Structures are given as structure tokens and as C-alpha cells.
Amino acid sequence: MNAPLRPNTLAPDPLSITVTGARLTYGGTELFANLALTIEAGITTCLLGPSGVGKTTLLRMVAGLAEPEPPTAIDTSDGAPLHGRVAYMAQQDLLLPWLTVLDNVLLGARLRHERRSPALVARARALLDQVGLAGREADRPATLSGGQRQRVAIARTLMEDKPLVLMDEPFSALDALTRLRLQDAAAEALAGRTVLMITHDPLEALRLGHRIHVMTGRPATIGPALEPPGLPPRAVDDPALLALQAELLRRLAG
Amino acid sequence: MNAPLRPNTLAPDPLSITVTGARLTYGGTELFANLALTIEAGITTCLLGPSGVGKTTLLRMVAGLAEPEPPTAIDTSDGAPLHGRVAYMAQQDLLLPWLTVLDNVLLGARLRHERRSPALVARARALLDQVGLAGREADRPATLSGGQRQRVAIARTLMEDKPLVLMDEPFSALDALTRLRLQDAAAEALAGRTVLMITHDPLEALRLGHRIHVMTGRPATIGPALEPPGLPPRAVDDPALLALQAELLRRLAG
Amino acid sequence: QDKLSVLLDWFVNPDHAPLVVAQEKGFFKDVGLDVTLTAPADPNDPPKLVAAGQADLAISYQPQLHIQVGEGLPLVRVGTLVSTPLNSVVVLRDGPVKTIKDLKGRKIGFSVGGFEDALLGAMLEKHGLTLKDVELVNVNFSLSPALLAGQVDAVVGAFRNFELNQMDIERHPGRAFYPEEEGVPAYDELIIVAHKDKIAGDGRIKRFLDAVERATLYILNHPEEAQAAFVKGRPELNDDLNRRAWADTLPRFSHSPAALDAARYTRFAEFLKARGLIKTVEPVERYAVVVK
Amino acid sequence: MRLLRALITAAVLLALWQGVVSLTGVPRYILPGPLAVADALQRQAPLLVRHGATTLTEILLGLLLGVALGGASALTLASFRTARRWLMPLLVVSQAIPVFALAPLLVLWLGYGMASKVAMATLVIFFPVTTALFDGLRRTEPGWLDLARTMGASRRSVLWHIRLPAALPAFGSGLRVAAAVAPIGAVIGEWVGSSSGLGYLMLHANARMQIDLLFAALVVLGVFAVALYAAVDALIRRALPWQPDTHPAEEKD
Amino acid sequence: MRLLRALITAAVLLALWQGVVSLTGVPRYILPGPLAVADALQRQAPLLVRHGATTLTEILLGLLLGVALGGASALTLASFRTARRWLMPLLVVSQAIPVFALAPLLVLWLGYGMASKVAMATLVIFFPVTTALFDGLRRTEPGWLDLARTMGASRRSVLWHIRLPAALPAFGSGLRVAAAVAPIGAVIGEWVGSSSGLGYLMLHANARMQIDLLFAALVVLGVFAVALYAAVDALIRRALPWQPDTHPAEEKD
Ligand SMILES: Nc1ncnc2c1ncn2[C@@H]1O[C@H](COP(=O)(O)OP(=O)(O)OP(=O)(O)O)[C@@H](O)[C@H]1O
Ligand SMILES: Nc1ncnc2c1ncn2[C@@H]1O[C@H](COP(=O)(O)OP(=O)(O)OP(=O)(O)O)[C@@H](O)[C@H]1O
Ligand SMILES: [Mg+2]
Ligand SMILES: [Mg+2]
């Protein structure tokens, strides 16, 4: 049952991304100036920070969707541009209302004019099953609950088979149990891939992140990485995590 | 600074609502049948449940927005209809893009053709300050981050001065610290009022709820109320809460 | 059978009787012609289209021919359908206007034909008035309604065989002032024009005119049968108005459609030049011929 | 129920019409009463049917062509900035040119047959469809565009799979206008020159003061317009089930 | 930059026009070349200015009235289910009635002055504006309506504060169409009966075979249309800053 979440192509050498000297202003306010962040290859980096600090903007900048100002530099380890190598899950679900749930999951293939092969469809169905939406393939997004919509968006992101995965609060609309289940599934599916994930839940960051950064201040800066022991997904009741949670909250208050 | 959150009119006798025999089907599937729930007067009732179980639908039904089927009965303690006595915060922020942040908070007054008195505006500004958005009054929603939008929606809901308050995952897009702060503010502002709040976070329910219900199954049923000791807002590090959290998770697992 | 396309000046009406009767009675077929008659919505279009080679012949008006030739259209008159003016100035019989003089200070409706103001100007001048003494209003093609409804006090451009009958039927009889009696030289109202460069050696035109002549005489000799042929397949033409117009039009058809009175054309050209509508008076043979 | 409503509407209209005629005393050669028109409708039924058939064909062909061309040009405008910059003024100018100026040209190029009428109907329909769709294509939710961009979609693919479906409701709005103005387009085309069709019949009747026949033809034209509009409206609702259609007056409160 | 582009557009148009004239060999009394028209424009400038001023006044008044009436009727349609059911067919029929059938009536009631022309322009503009706004009013995000309902908003208040602002972009789309068709409305009005205006001038020039003057008047009319469209477009963008306007061809990829 877990197999379909694992990409069926051999992943290329994982990619690392370095952001340096990043600068971005909105209407005169410097959101960040001279911000630096390294997204290490093949692991999950979690980003926490107070609401409105600029996490989404940073993610969009890496995805090529927000226009940074000089002297911003975004470098990849292989030197090639990032365009076309990113899977991006936004803070809103962004489901297309006219497509069925299944077609929303297959959107990437449709947009790239890829053949809708039976294997592809089977993988999409398996992903939907994994996120607990088996049987809803033919429904339209308007008939889904908030959490169900978010799960379709997760499936759509996992469907994209890209070296860099950017996720903006992917589990925010899910109940505690579904969330745990999907954290596990995502961790497994994204193992070996370079992931940058924004979350508001310190425990979630501690479960899933190899490295955890906290972003604070205006202009915002990114603190040093916290590297919890052990491999994700870590157990929720690990006492070490609880100690680190207090540390994270302290940094957040920073 | 906290004063403005407290309604400046004398609250009438708090209202309790009893839902009995509730039945609602979507396209042949019974979402719930013969569901019963009492929303006790003057306290906060929290509702948890797996994604897609029907929490939002139930809330909308109470708000008069979803059409239930017979033999559903929604009774109020004073026998008068609920219409016009509900403050409703939906799962999406539903900010109007053409209004400024301040005008969005003042939407209710505008829609009811109430005079935009200086006192009213001052209260709206104070609420915005309370949710951490002082200085953003004149901005449009499009320039806000996800969490900032949600905070405007919270301010708008608190601005409405109604006996029954319905909130659907009001803090889902907020970081841990902002969330704690706003939980406290909301608990204070809503003290003595009848509140039904949907949340996915068991700890949040335990902090804020006088009574906590878990909704599970299809057709969904509502379990017995869990009544944590002490008065909300309870401290996060209360060890009693952690024990109850495990109990809640067990109930959620159904 | 040679094909021949003919553009009418307006929708089929009794003015076109010789053409329609020739068609219905097979006179065109008898001279080896397969004629199509097409009605335009704007009477100004047919000469342009003949000049552009879109049709072989067009029904037009003599005053317009002078203007068109003056503007450089390669047109030439080859035949005459109606050899008197039909145009007239019409007022309500029981209205305040009894003579042209009474038009002073009044509203006059016209349907733009390009020549009505010149015609009216000449008529007014004979009575000591000028165009400045009246207000001209374009009423498009609603001449009699505008007059009957009292929107204007007179109309110019009304056809004596048509609008007068129309008003009579509506029980508001009209009074006509005839231009040729009020200082405007007589002219041919309806003529047949062709492209200047295409008539040489085109035997079809001569045969066409022969058939039209034959039809005209047939109408004079057998008015009843001709009328029946005219409304055959055009039931909408079989009403009181058209029957009356038919009777009033009969005497005005040219009995010799191919014949040309060159002096009459020169006289009229000089009139138009005097009114400023054309710049030069060209020799008649440049724009009106007798087809051999 | 709907039929009943339609009948009542018609009855009220007729009553209003009769009222205007009776009250203002409009002479019948300007506005005949409904009875006279009903009589003409009945007497001239075969004529109306014959000419109506011609016009209906032109309307439908014009609608087809106009919508196709309008859709294509909106897509072109949306695809190429260059096209937008240079073509838009051209389109706008095309709306301001009265037919009669074009008539000889149309006849010159298309002849007196059906082509010139279909061309006119097309021209009339073309602009509302183009603007509506183009406007819709411009108003796409930016989040969807961002998503598509990260998915490596080409501009054409975004246009086709995101912008176009998102613009369909706006397109529908343009279609409704097109359906309502198509009949007048065909009639204007018939004024260019024709030997059949309701436009021809009307000019004809007008020139002969058969105003009752003119109004009978108008009634037929009105029926066409309403029927077309209703059909297009139903079609649009069917085709866009995901589209919120919240009839304001049906709200409860 | 924009001016330059406009100039180049004009130049390209002229070149195209000249091309058509040269290639197809259309005779000049059907389609005169740009040079002849430019000459007429210059020679007849005072005449064109005088008649153009009349027409421009009619256009602007018609636009004002048409937009006001269209907006009001869309709001009425949206407010009352009854209005929607009974009035919509009427509106549709009103679009299918050719002017010339109405002309005598219009003149009878409004006279030959400016009123009848303004009425025609209004009629032409009215429908696109009504449909566009009405369609926009129907497509409101249901969540907003729910919210307003719980806030105890009356139906009228919802219409005014939620539906209407949400429908403004759609209304803008209708306005654009209206701006483009307003000139033809005024010209048609002038054909109904007039003693000045570009429509009058055109009829006159056509009858006198002064086709160069006719086309010069057309050029002026075209300039009016483009200027109006541009002005309305700019106005709409200004008035709706919150409205996503994502020009498809400006995307990077
Ligand atoms: N308009 C609709 N048509 C059909 N089914 C619907 C519709 N709206 C909701 N549903 C279904 O009803 C169920 C309950 O939805 P609801 O939004 O109440 O869930 P929820 O408990 O709030 O979930 P979440 O925590 O994800 O928000 C879901 O399975 C959903 O698919
Ligand atoms: N288009 C815009 N114009 C102006 N300001 C903007 C715009 N978009 C974002 N901002 C501002 O930039 C700041 C950062 O926004 P961003 O969405 O990156 O925050 P975030 O860290 O993701 O917050 P959240 O956790 O609430 O999602 C916010 O203060 C926001 O108001
Ligand atoms: Mg964010
Ligand atoms: Mg929900």
C-alpha cells in the first residue's frame, strides 16, 4: 500500500539550494535583507516563524514566484536553474473547481501534455487512497470538506516527481490522527528528496525535519539549524522532542 | 488593552441550543442521522473529529446555512429563532478583497446599516491591535499573509456582539505563539457567551473548552462530553491536560 | 441563354413593372437572356456595384447619374424606364401649406438622395425663398409617416405615384408640387445604367431593352393580365396601395426605353451645374448612349 | 409552469402594447395594434415562415461563426502580447463602422447571397464574445497561475487548461449577449441586399406602408431572440455545473 | 511609448488599408485609399469637427444614460425574482427589434432633436451592460453570502455591499463593450432622422458619391470609439485595484 508513494523513477542525485543575500521589500518595508538559507540535499528542512514574518514569501522566492531584489542569489548544487524541478504546495489548496479530484491530482501531467497512461492514473488513485480519499476520485472539489481539499493538494504535490519539494503548511487543516498518518506517508514518500516545509506546529517540525530553522524579525533573519536526533518520522511521544519543543518555542518568541 | 475585546453592551441571559434528531444527506450518503448535541449556555463547547466527518456541516446547520432534513430540531433555550443572533467564522477567511482590513472588521455594521460611530471604529481598531495587526488597518486583504487574514477574520467575528458564536478552526493558520496569545484573548472576549468551536488540535480544545465533544463515524455520532477540570484558558503545561489529550486521541480514533 | 444581372434601385414596386412583367411573361427568355433582378436596401449602392463590375445593369435616377459621373464613376445610361420626374414636394391637402411660398419657416423632411436640396432650392427660388428659409430634416425612408404624424410640414423626395396614394389610403390626402412646374427642368426619373467600358459589343443590352419595350407595350395593352403577372409570386404586392400605384405609374413608363433625348440631358446637366452639384457639363455621349 | 409564465408574459406585453396604442392614439401606420398584427401574422403566415426560415439559417450560421471567431480571437489576444497591443484597437474600430458603409464592399466580395448576411451577423456577435472571453482570460486566480508555472506548464498549456476553463463563465455571459443580438445582426445583413429573409420583408413592408406585416415580422424576430437566449442560457448552465449560480432573489432571510 | 505604439498601429492599419486597395483593385468609389481619405479629412476638417461634435455629445449622453439604466435594470433584475422572470424576455426582445421599425415611433415621441439619437445610443448600450452586470451579480462567492446572512444583512444590503462590488469586474467587461458600440448607436440614431452629426454627414456623402468624405467621417467615428474604449478601460483598472488582472502574455516562463 505504501509503494505508490515512492516515486517510480530513480531519483537523480539530490539537489541542495543556497540562498544568499536575499532581499525583498513590499511597499517600502524590508521583509528581509541579506537573508541566507541552505536547503541541504536529500533531507527535509522545516521552517517555523511567527505569522506574517515572510515564510511564504521566502518559499515563493525559491519557487521562482516572487521577484527578489539584488543582491539575492539562489544557487543550486548542480548549477542548473530550478525551473521545472520544483513541486510546490501553496498555503491555499488551489484546487481547480472544474476538474474532478482525480484530475486535480493529475494536473501536472495534464499541463505538461504527458500521456495519461494507466500507470499514471493508478499512481494517482493509490495516492488518493493513501490520503484517505479512495472513492472520491470522481467528485468535484466543491463537495469536499476543508481537510479533504488539503489532502487532495498533498496528493497532487506528491504526484509531482521533482527533486525539490516546497510545502507551505501542508497539514494545517487536518485533525490530529489524520495528520500523524499523513506525516508518516509524506516522510516516506519524500525520503531522499530535498524538502523545504513551512509549518506552525513545532512538534510537526520535530517529527519530520532533519533540520529545523526559525525565522524571526523584520527584516527577517533565519536562525541556526536545530537538528533533532534520530531519523524522521520520529515518534510523537519521544521525550527528547518535548525538550526540543520548548527550545523551539523560545526561539520563536526570539 | 484587553478591554475592547469585552463587548460593551450588557450580555443578555446566555443562550443554550439543543440539536435533536439531526439528519442530513449529501447525494445519497447519510452524513448524520439522529444526531444530538447540546450547546450549553454561557460556556465554550469544542468539537473535534476526523476530517470530513461533518463538523463544518453541523456548524452550518446550526447557523442556518445548511438545510437539514426531518426530523431535525434545533431548539433555543428562549424559544426564539436563532436568526440574527449568531456570529459565524467559517473555515475560510472570507475577507472581501475590495474592503480594507478595518472595513472588513466593520463589515457586520456596514451590512446592517449601523452608524459607523467613532466608538465602533475605535473598538475595531482595538481588536485589530489585539490580534497583532495594528498599523495594517488601511491595507487590502490581498497584501496579507495567510495567518494575518485569519486574524482579521477572528477580529471580525469578535466584533459581532452575538449571544451564540460559531467558529470553524479559527486558529489553524497561526504559529504556536500567536495562537496561544489569541486563544487567551478569545477566551476572555467570549467569556460568558455560548460558543461552539471546531478545532483539530486536542490541546487547543483542552485549553479553551468547558466541554469537549468528539464526532466520529458515518453516519456521524457525537460522543459524551469531556469536561476538563479548571476554567479556560487553562495553562498549556498542565499535566492533567496531557492525560486528557491521550483520552481525546483515543476517542478520535473511534 | 446569356446571363444578365440587374440591380433594382429599391424593393420591387410598380416602377419596375416592365422588368417584372418581362421576366414573368418570358420576354427575356425569348431574346435568349437569363435575367436576375436583385433589390438593394440602399438606392445608392447599385450604380457603385455596376461600376465595380458586380452586376451588368442597374436601375438609377437621372440626377444621380450626373452626380455619379461627375464624381468619376464609369457609368453610362443605356435605357429609360420612367421618362418623367416622379419626385415631388408633398404636403397635407388640408394643411396650412397651400403654395410653395407657405413653406417659409417650416420643417421639410427629406430622404437623402443627394439631390433633394438642389431640387427644393430651385423650387423655393422661383417663389422668392431660399433654402435658408426652411429647416431640412433627414427622415430617412419614413417620408409619409413623418408628414402624417405632423413631424414635418412637407416632404421632398416623395414619389407622386406612391406617397400620394399612401396618404390617400390613410385618409390624409396630400397635395403635390411638381418640380418640373416649379422651375426644375424635366428629367427621366428611372434610367438603366451600365459600365461605360463594357457596353461595346455587348449584344445582351440591346436584347434586354427590346424585351423591356415589349413588356411596356404589353402592360399598356393588357393591364389586367400584366397586373396578374406582376403579383404572381409576390403576394405582398397585391394590396390596395400597389394596385393604385400601378395605375398611376402606367402612363409614365417610357414607350421607347432605348431612345435618348440628348438635349434634355444637357439641359439638366446645366441646371445641376448652376446649383453647384457638378463642376462641369460633360458632353452627353460620355454618359448617355443609344445602344446599337 | 414556465410555459404558463411565458404565456402570461406575452399576454401582459400585448395588453401593454394595446394600452400604448389606445392611450397615445398612435396612428396605425406608425404602431398598429396587436389585433392588426395578429391578423397579419395569420394572413401572411406562409410568407413569414418562408422568410423566417432564411433569417433563422443566417442567425444560426452567424452565431456559430461569430462565437468561433470571437473565441479564437480572444485566445489570440490572450496568447500574444503583440496581438493584444495591435489588434485590440482594430476590433474596437470594427464595432464603430456602420454597415451601410461596408455594404458595397461586402457585396463586392461576398455577393448578394447568404454569405454577406452571415458575415454581418458574425460581425455583430464577434465583439461581445471576444471582449467577454478576453476579460475572463485576464481575471484568472493568480494562485492557479503560480501553481501551473511551478508545474512546468507552457504558456499555451496554462491558457488552455487553466485560463480558459476559468474564463468560461465570463464567456457564457458574452454568449448570452451574442444570442440576443444575433437576430438583429442577420437583419442588418439583409439590409445589405437580399431577396428573402425577415429583414428584407420588413424593409419591403415598410416601404409599402404595410406596417402590420412589418410588426408581424418583428414578432417572429422577437420569438427567435427569446428562444435563442433561453437555449443558450440553458446550455451554459448545463455546461458549467461547477460554477456558483446564486440567484440573488432566491435567498432566504 | 504608448503614443508611439498607437502611432505605429495607425500606420500599420493605413498600410493594410492601402494594401487592400492596391491588391484587390477595389474602385475608389467603393473603398477610397487612405491618401484620398486623408485629403478629405484635411479639406473638410471644419465640417467634420462640427458634425463630430454633435455625434460626440450624443455618444456621451447615450453612454451615460445607457450605463445608468443598464446598471439600474440589472440591479432590479437581481433584486426581484418577479422582475427577472417577467422582464428578462422583454429585454431580450428589445435587442432584436431593428431601429428602423422603431424609428417613426421614436421620432413621434422624441422629435428630430438630440433626444431620439441619445435614445438609440442608450438602447444599444443598455443590453450588454445589463447582462454583464446581472451575470456578475449572480456569480457571487457563496461563502460571502453565507457570512452576510449570519450577520443579519437584508437582501438589499447583501446586494449593495457584497454582490455589487463582487460584480464590478463583470460590469467593467460590459462597459467596455458599451464604449465600443456607443458610436454606432448614435449614428443609427442619426439615420432615424437628423440634420447634423456624422451619421447625417455619411448618408449625405454617400448619396453624393463623395465616398472619400464618407470614409473620413468613418475615421473620426473610429477615433471616437478607440478613445472611448481606452478611457473606459483605464477608468476600470483604476476603479478596481483589488481585481487580479493577469495579462496572460506577460507571464514569464
Ligand atoms: N456540497 C456538498 N455536496 C456533497 N457533499 C458534500 C458537500 N459539502 C460537504 N460534503 C461532504 O460532507 C462531508 C462532511 O463535510 P464537512 O465539511 O462537514 O467536514 P468537516 O468535518 O468539516 O471536515 P474538515 O475537518 O476536513 O473540515 C464530507 O465528506 C464532504 O465531502
Ligand atoms: N502582495 C503583497 N503586497 C504587500 N505586502 C505583502 C504582499 N504579500 C505579502 N505581504 C506582506 O509580507 C509579509 C510576509 O508575508 P508572508 O505571506 O510571507 O508571511 P508568512 O510568514 O507566510 O505568514 P503566515 O504564517 O501568516 O502565512 C506580511 O506582512 C504581508 O503583509
Ligand atoms: Mg504563509
Ligand atoms: Mg470543516
TrEMBL record, chains A, B:
The keyword NADP does not apply. Belongs to the ABC transporter superfamily. Keywords: ATP-binding, Nucleotide-binding, Transport. PROSITE patterns: ABC_TRANSPORTER_1, ABC_TRANSPORTER_2. The keyword Transport applies. InterPro entries: AAA+_ATPase, ABC_transporter-like_ATP-bd, ABC_transporter-like_CS, ABC_transporter_ATP-bind, P-loop_NTPase. GO terms for molecular function: ATP binding. Residues 17-242 form the ABC transporter domain. Transmembrane segments: none annotated. This is Hydroxymethylpyrimidine transport system ATP-binding protein. The lineage of its organism: Bacteria, Pseudomonadati, Pseudomonadota, Alphaproteobacteria, Rhodospirillales. It holds the Pfam family ABC_tran.
Automatic annotation (TrEMBL), chains D, E:
Its main location: membrane. The keyword Transmembrane applies. It holds the Pfam family BPD_transp_1. It is found in: Cell membrane. The keyword Transmembrane helix applies. Residues 52-236 form the ABC transmembrane type-1 domain. CDD domains: TM_PBP2. Keywords: Cell membrane, Membrane, Transmembrane, Transmembrane helix, Transport. SUPFAM superfamilies: MetI-like (SSF161098). The chain crosses the membrane at residues 59-78, 90-112, 181-201, 213-232. Coiled coil: none annotated. It is a multi-pass membrane protein. It comes from the Bacteria. InterPro entries: MetI-like, MetI-like_sf. Belongs to the binding-protein-dependent transport system permease family. This is Hydroxymethylpyrimidine transport system permease protein. It comes from Azospirillum rugosum. The lineage of its organism: Bacteria, Pseudomonadati, Pseudomonadota, Alphaproteobacteria, Rhodospirillales.
